[in-house]
Specification:
Layout: H1 2-28, H2 32-50, E1 53-54, E2 60-64, E3 76-81, H3 88-91, E4 99-100, E5 109-112, E6 116-118, E7 123-129, E8 135-140, E9 146-152, E10 156-160, E11 167-176, E12 181-192, E13 198-203, H4 208-219, E14 223-231, E15 234-238, E16 249-253, H5 254-259, H6 262-273, E17 278-281, H7 288-295, E18 300-301, E19 315-316, E20 319-320, E21 325-326, E22 329-331, E23 336-341, E24 344-349, E25 351-352, H8 362-376, E26 385-387, E27 399-404, E28 409-412, E29 417-420, E30 422-424, E31 427-432, E32 438-444, E33 448-454, H9 461-478, H10 481-485, E34 489-490, H11 494-512
Parallel strand pairs: 2-3, 3-4, 6-12, 13-14, 13-16, 16-17, 17-24
Antiparallel strand pairs: 1-34, 5-7, 7-10, 8-9, 8-11, 11-12, 14-15, 18-20, 19-25, 21-22, 22-23, 23-24, 26-27, 27-31, 28-29, 28-32, 30-31, 32-33
Helix pairs in contact: 1-2, 2-11
């Protein structure tokens, strides 16, 4: 390429020099017409070699529409699209060409909610909207009964605790301050049985808090290997109801940890380093030096009546870190401090007195404890993890379904199709075209049965518009600059060649006279 450019430049330079020299010789003999003909011939030869390009674009512009099939692209140099643009699956099938599009403003919303949830967890539906005016968000059961509602301006969110493990299609609707319907649509949700915790508990002293925690974990179906020191050489032991194959949580109180010998403490922390989460109940801590040496946790005495930073009324532990950030330890509420410990994680619970809420507010207490355990990041191993489609699945539109841990083929009984999983990053994907709205079943040899909800074309139009705008903006951003720069059309070369030949013939004729 560089050699071609150098040859072209050299040809232009030689033509220019020869033309100027010849014109100067003719002008010296006062042959003005011949001098002009030489200049015209040199200029035509230079333009012929330069390959002049005119402003404008080669090819033609193709207008795209979301409801039309994939177009023929022969001779297409650029795209144009109106409104919200196309879906991501449609843009992915098109080459990167210049795009003419004016992004609309406002009129969209986005829904955020989990498609799968463990029983006992709170379901949260959040609506993010462009319009910040006063509005009302309602969540309805399958029978139309109102189960949750929120009012306010800006983004809105509703919470609901599912009572059963089942697959359901809830309904949500957004109303303005006067009660006029702004948007509505289905909210598909699969509630599955909770993962079973396998908990080892080691405690140096009994307490009402400890008993309350035991009952809470047992009520959730957790397997408990529980040991509580009641007195000198007296220990109360509770064995798990089934074989505990792989403990995924270790809970200790501060008193038990402080009494461990150096070798025992080192062995315990070795298990944590290997990936076992450790939760320390700090209410009966007495020796700040032990915690500073073993875990790098600096504890300071707290006021006897200091409240813990919890939604339920509790007291702070007698010893707690003085600040939310203490070395490797961090906290968001002055109640639970956490730090990483190689592959594992350690949490310090600096609150006491939660047993007072076990009878009056059992659900609120369970939710608070769930939040404490979530801070530990307990990893429940799964063979297969199903990933949600990046955009709303619609009938007749290509849908990509991805999962981690799958292999072989995916079977779609409703479509009578088998598709081989194709690797993509750390997951594998298949593409299908759903025929109708509703649940679309998929089966995998390792992952078992799964279902993806296919929305109707008229569901959540404002959400669909937001997804199309984002996909169109991403496509416009990936268009290479050189596609724009190289879109000018070349001027035909033959007029310059003809002008050169005519000028030289006329000059020859004049010389022969």
């Amino acid at each position: 390429m560089n050699g071609i450019l150098m040859n072209t430049t050299l040809l232009l330079a030689l033509a220019g020099v020869a033309g100027l020299a010849s014109a100067a010789l003719y002008a010296r003999r006062r042959q003005w017409i011949d001098a002009l003909l030489v200049l015209v011939a040199a200029l035509a030869l230079g333009l012929f070699a330069a390959g002049v390009r005119l402003p404008g674009e080669a090819g033609h512009s193709l207008a795209l529409a979301p409801d039309t099939p994939a177009p023929l692209l022969e001779g297409v140099a650029r795209f144009s699209v109106d409104g919200d643009g196309l879906r991501a699956a449609q843009w992915n099938d098109l080459p990167a060409l210049p795009l003419q599009w004016q992004r609309p403003e406002g009129g969209t919303l986005r829904l955020h909610y989990p498609r799968q949830l463990a029983l006992g967890r709170t379901f949260t539906l959040r609506v993010q909207r462009d319009d910040k005016a006063e509005a009302r968000l309602q969540l309805l059961a399958e029978n139309g009964q109102l189960i949750a509602e929120a009012r306010g301006s800006g983004d809105l969110a509703v919470n609901w605790m599912p009572p059963l493990a089942e697959r359901m299609v809830l309904k949500a609707r957004l109303l303005d301050a006067a009660g006029k319907l702004l948007a509505e649509g289905p909210v598909p949700l699969t509630i599955h049985a909770p993962d079973i915790l396998q908990v080892q508990g080691r405690f140096g002293a009994p307490s009402f808090d400890l008993r309350s925690l035991n009952e809470l974990l047992a009520g959730s179906g957790a397997l408990l290997d529980w040991q509580v020191v009641l007195g000198r050489a007296i220990t109360r032991t509770e064995l798990p109801l089934a074989e505990m194959t792989a403990p995924n949580l270790l809970v200790v109180d501060a008193a038990w940890f402080e009494r461990l010998g150096a070798a025992e403490r080192s062995a315990l922390l070795g298990r944590v380093a290997g990936g076992l989460p450790l939760l320390v109940l700090g209410a009966n801590a007495n020796d700040p030096g032990t915690w500073a040496r073993s875990l790098g946790l600096a504890l300071r005495p707290q006021a006897a009546d200091k409240k813990a930073g919890t939604p339920l009324e509790m007291l702070a532990a007698p010893l707690n870190p003085a600040t939310r950030t203490a070395g490797e330890w961090t906290s968001t509420d002055d109640t639970v401090w956490t730090r990483n410990w190689q592959k594992g994680r350690v949490a310090w619970l600096g609150a006491t007195g939660w047993h007072r809420h076990a009878i009056a507010e059992p659900q609120a207490l369970a939710l608070w404890w769930q939040g404490v355990l979530d801070r530990l990041g307990i990893d429940m191993p799964r063979q297969v993890e199903w990933l949600e489609p990046e955009e709303l699945p619609l009938p007749g539109q290509r849908m990509e379904l991805c999962a981690r841990g799958v292999q072989g083929e995916a079977v779609f009984p409703d479509l009578k199709l088998r598709r081989s999983w194709k690797p993509r990053g750390d997951a594998a994907c298949v593409a299908v075209w759903p025929g109708r709205s509703g649940w679309l079943r998929v089966e995998d040899a390792r992952g078992g049965a799964h279902a993806v909800y296919v929305y109707a074309p008229g569901d959540w139009l404002q959400w669909q518009a937001a997804q199309r705008r984002e996909a169109t903006a991403r496509y416009a951003a990936r268009t290479p600059d050189r596609a724009l720069a190289g879109a000018a059309r070349a001027f035909p070369a033959w007029p310059f060649a003809l002008a050169f030949v005519l000028a030289m013939l006329l000059l020859w004729w004049r010389e022969r006279r």
